[in-house]
RNA sequence: CGAGGUGUAGCGCAGUUGGCUAGCGCGCCUGCUUUGGGAGCAGGAUGUCGGGGGUUCAAGUCCCUUCACCUCGACCA
């Protein structure tokens, strides 16, 4: 066991086989188990705890921006799903249907929600009558079902957990502001809680949400250079309002259609955490959402005073941190490796030598760095360390992304970059969907977004050579 | 959904041209000794050989079928 880089022999090395590494990590860290239902995953306590921490913090941010939680049914009558043409065309191929209730065949089949725009719209049509009723800023935390052909834990499963916000506004301007506000909430959350840098931008028409006027996205780069669409915020204009008849009387008693948004953030974000921060020893969790922030490992626990001191420290720290004292009879080395695999940000070692000096040893998961900490003011020391870990994870991810973000000024350059170097490639685009499709077909890279920074690189399309004013981030995506 | 691959104990695997009571390592349980990077000794338990059907005197092994997972494509949070 002298090889420090191979402590967890059960995990495949990232560079050897990234997808196998990913599967090993989600299983060995006990985030999920596979279930009896094809494509569905069981979120185990440790994995669900990550989601709970994400939920708590995001939910608070939603409420701070004026949103209320509701719960919609999980079934959508077919007639309701059919009301908005683009929407149904987009989702129909991946919808699960209920055709029977008990022993009775249903007169109208029910779709298991793949997303809930139609239910919210139907409800809004009932409750919105006057300008005084607006805006309505609703959100729900639920699971949805999409009959995916290829599934992977967290990244794409048949059923997945998410939140979906659905809002109605009096004016297009208000709805656009909401769309942008929530995109920023997502981007800030990725930075401040998950330590993941994202590119904010707009989706092309080809990539936008079915039924949306415009879709905004935050795109993150994984360790293997591939892109992950990490959350989206959609502006609907009044398209759904017209399809569902959501109207209100304005101040002049004129009937107006509402303007709408929706925005979603899913358990896919956990896949991003794994693939951005993880290493060959397993998970590396950002401290602010880690189910365990500090794992205390007693050394020579049978020696007088060790367990007592460790317990006292545990009780003291539990007031401030998510902390666990591992009193099992495993060897210390085994515990070190175990909590590393599970991505616990800090490990505290407390042994006989520490007792003598009123200290403990803190070890960072992200760097492996050991620090001897006096037990006085331990909370402050640990808080500082956790913040440093967060900042370091973010900086490391940012540098990793920026160092693999390239610019292509010509077609050969684009083809060469996408083929040779995993990562993002920025290039100019004329706006013709044919060029977008050709790039996808011939390089495998899809348009991730039109980043908000639209500073031109050149003035011609990287594909067709015609005048172009759109700067696009291209990349292979999950 | 197309191409390829893998399913044998909790995990990783072996199992010969079909042949007797299906093995190994790790893990697990008990006891003692250990404890600052995955401990040692002794004893012990654990299998619908992924499921279903077939061929055969005989199937983990051959055939059909089905399910799951992995890889690469096409489609999507």
Describe what this molecule looks like in 3D.
The relative contact order is 0.11. By secondary structure, this protein is α+β, with helices and mostly antiparallel strands. The protein has helices at 18-28, 45-64, 78-81, 85-91, 117-127, 172-192, 239-244, 268-277, 306-317, 332-341, 352-357, 378-402, 411-420, 433-443; strands at residues 32-34, 41-43, 68-69, 75-77, 96-101, 104-112, 136-145, 159-169, 199-202, 214-221, 227-237, 247-249, 255-257, 259-266, 294-298, 323-325, 346-350, 359-364, 370-374, 405-407, 424-429, 446-451, 470-475. Helix 2 (45-64) packs across helix 6. The longest helix is centred in the C-terminal third of the chain and has 25 residues, at 378-402. Mean pLDDT is 92; it is low at 1-9. It is built from 14 helices and 23 strands.
């Amino acid at each position: 066991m002298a090889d420090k880089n191979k402590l967890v022999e059960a995990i495949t090395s990232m560079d050897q086989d990234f997808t196998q590494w990913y599967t090993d990590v989600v299983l060995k860290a006990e985030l999920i188990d596979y279930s009896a239902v094809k494509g569905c995953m069981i979120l185990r306590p440790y994995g669900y705890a990550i989601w709970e921490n994400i939920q708590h913090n995001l939910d608070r941010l939603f409420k701070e921006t004026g949103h209320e939680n509701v719960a919609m049914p999980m079934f959508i009558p077919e007639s309701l799903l059919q009301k908005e043409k683009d929407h149904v065309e987009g989702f129909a191929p991946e919808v699960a249907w209920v055709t029977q209730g008990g022993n009775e065949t249903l007169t109208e089949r029910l779709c298991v929600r793949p997303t809930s725009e139609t239910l919210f719209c139907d409800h809004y049509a009932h409750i919105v009558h006057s300008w005084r009723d607006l805006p309505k800023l609703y959100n729900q935390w639920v699971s949805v079902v999409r009959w995916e052909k290829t599934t992977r834990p967290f990244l794409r499963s048949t059923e997945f957990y998410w939140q979906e916000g659905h809002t109605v506004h009096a004016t297009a301007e208000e709805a656009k502001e909401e769309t942008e506000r929530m995109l920023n909430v997502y981007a800030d959350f990725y930075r401040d809680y998950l330590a993941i840098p994202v590119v904010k931008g707009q989706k092309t028409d080809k990539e936008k949400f079915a039924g949306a006027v415009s879709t905004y996205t935050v795109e993150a780069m994984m360790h293997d250079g591939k892109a992950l669409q990490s959350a989206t915020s959609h502006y609907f204009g009044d398209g759904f309002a017209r399809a569902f008849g959501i109207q209100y009387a304005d101040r002049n008693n004129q009937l107006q259609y509402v303007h709408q948004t929706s925005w979603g953030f899913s358990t896919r974000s956990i896949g991003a955490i794994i693939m951005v921060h993880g290493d060959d020893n397993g998970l590396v969790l950002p401290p602010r959402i880690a189910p365990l922030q500090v794992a205390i490992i007693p050394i020579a626990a049978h020696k007088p005073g060790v367990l007592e001191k460790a317990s006292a420290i545990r009780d003291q720290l539990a007031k401030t941190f998510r902390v666990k004292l591992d009193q099992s009879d495993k060897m210390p080395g085994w515990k070190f490796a175990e909590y590393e695999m599970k991505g616990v940000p800090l490990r505290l070692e407390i042994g006989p030598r520490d007792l003598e000096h009123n200290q403990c040893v803190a070890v960072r998961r992200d760097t492996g760095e050991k620090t001897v900490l006096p037990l006085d003011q331990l909370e402050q020391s640990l808080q500082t360390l956790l913040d440093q870990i967060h900042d370091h994870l973010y900086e490391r991810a940012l540098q990793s992304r920026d160092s693999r973000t390239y610019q292509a000024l010509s077609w050969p350059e684009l083809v060469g970059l996408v083929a040779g170097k995993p990562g993002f490639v920025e290039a100019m685009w004329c706006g013709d969907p044919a060029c977008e499709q050709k790039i996808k077909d011939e390089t495998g890279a899809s348009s991730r977004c039109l980043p908000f920074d639209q500073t031109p690189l050149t003035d011609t399309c990287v594909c067709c050579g015609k005048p172009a004013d759109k700067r696009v981030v291209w990349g292979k995506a999950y």
